[in-house]
Predict the 3D structure of the following.
Amino acid sequence: MLFSAEFYFWKTASYGRLPMNESSPILVHRLEELYLDIDMWAGWNHLDRLFWFADGRGVLLRGGSTFQLKQHQQGGWLLVMNRLHIQYFLNRHPEFENSLLLEGDRPVIDFSLGVETAEKLDVLAPQLKAGIAAGDDPALLQSYVDIILMRMSISYAGTMQIAYRSYEAECYRKVRQLVRQHFRTRKSSVFYADSLHLSVVKLNAICNRISGKNLLELLNERRITEAEILLITTQMPVKQIALELGYDNTGHFSSYFKKYKGMSPSGYRGLAFSGGKFFK
């Protein structure tokens, strides 16, 4: 059976929607046992990060990926969001910027949570769902989401100590850090390769092996994500956002944005939000 979280959430009455905006809510749901093997699938436009956790185990699915749960593995909680929610969290908690769980690009990550984290998440998930239903203060709801992401990131890091020591993983972490620091002003791959004392070819090969993307793709993705966040969380004019991201020409920025999102920055802002905030 193909378990499409998109279909499941919208056809089930007892889900929680975190009203971060109309087009990209966060969804929270208790996954009951279905007494058959199911495939979890993350693969739609707005909600492309699916977290599942149960019995000390965590799974992250990114868009286009599928993960099978056997009958004896079911239950637990589903938390569904998108990359903007992840980036918004990282912008506010830079100490987690090197999290391979949140910043990596592996389509499926299956890892151990540990007893303490599992117990904590089993408490936080129903509190988050109940808080959404009760219309609690958005700051409180966001704190629940933050703690869940922090706990899962720390648990995953604990299971990846060997990978964290590998040469290529270290290079990848460093280049992601450089991208976060310089994506607004440094658009050439040569700068990043020279900073790590590597050739562009070697650095692209490392990025491709770990993330499936070359360096320019990572840079483009980061700039577009930041543009989306600024468009939907601030009232900054498009011209100011273009300058913030290193574009002297607003028309050039608009063309660049439309190439990746299929619409102008102003059109994206109008479609995604009213009010310019994640929480209404």
Notes: Residues 1-24, 34-38, 274-280 have pLDDT under 50 and may be disordered. The chain has two domains: 2-161, 167-272. The CA atoms of residues 12 and 120 lie 25 Å apart. Strands lie at 2-4, 16-18, 26-30, 38-42, 49-54, 57-62, 65-69, 77-81, 108-112.
